[in-house]
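sorry for the late reply, my laptop died twice this morning and i had to redo everyting from scratch. anyway the thing you sent over, i finally got around to it. pasting the sequence first so we're on the same page, its 213 residues, then the predicted structure underneath. double check i copied it right bc i was rushing
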Amino acid sequence: MSVDKSTYYHHQREEMSLLIPKSYHKILEIGCGSGDFRNNMNSENEYWGIEPVLEPALLARKKLDKVFINTYEEVFNDLPDQYFDLVICNDVIEHMVDHDSFFESIQKKMTDDSYLVASIPNVRYIENLINIIFRKEWEYRESGVLDRTHLRFFTEKSLKRTILKHGYKIEKFYYINSVFTNPYTLGAIIKRVLVMILGRDTEFLQFGIKIKK
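ok and here's the structure:
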């Protein structure tokens, strides 16, 4: 599966806007790409970004107030403590070498009563299960659940356990990006039957979370 690199870092992610809290002032987006997610926010905020890929990071610098061109781990000490009341991680945590360390360390940079909003791939996505169970296949790709750059994989149960283990309160947990874009094909009908058997969570490519420090 090929990926159009010209659009890979340019996503506004409107489906995640439902998770944005009503009040926020200082935002940190980890993996900000070209900075388009800021379009979902109100105009009265201070918006920082972290993006390790040079080209989209340079574009983000035209849209955000401050952008670090590096990884979260490498710029951690440059981030002010107890500063951000909203942290955004869209499709980022699964790329981290140590996600447990991230959930712990980012709290040092968050204010009291702050929020972390994130989207994370669902390894129990029905198309992935079909490949594993029926085709006996686990093949890394350029994008999707089995993106070759993913280092961590989550189910709904394991993700919730991880969040609670690190002391966060889950305020919203959404299923996002359903497999059923065309419900009338034979393939879609078969998948619907499998979803009924295997569980509703398997219908969705990703989880969207809003958690409170």
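The chain has six helices and seven strands.
thats about all i looked at so far, will dig more tmrw
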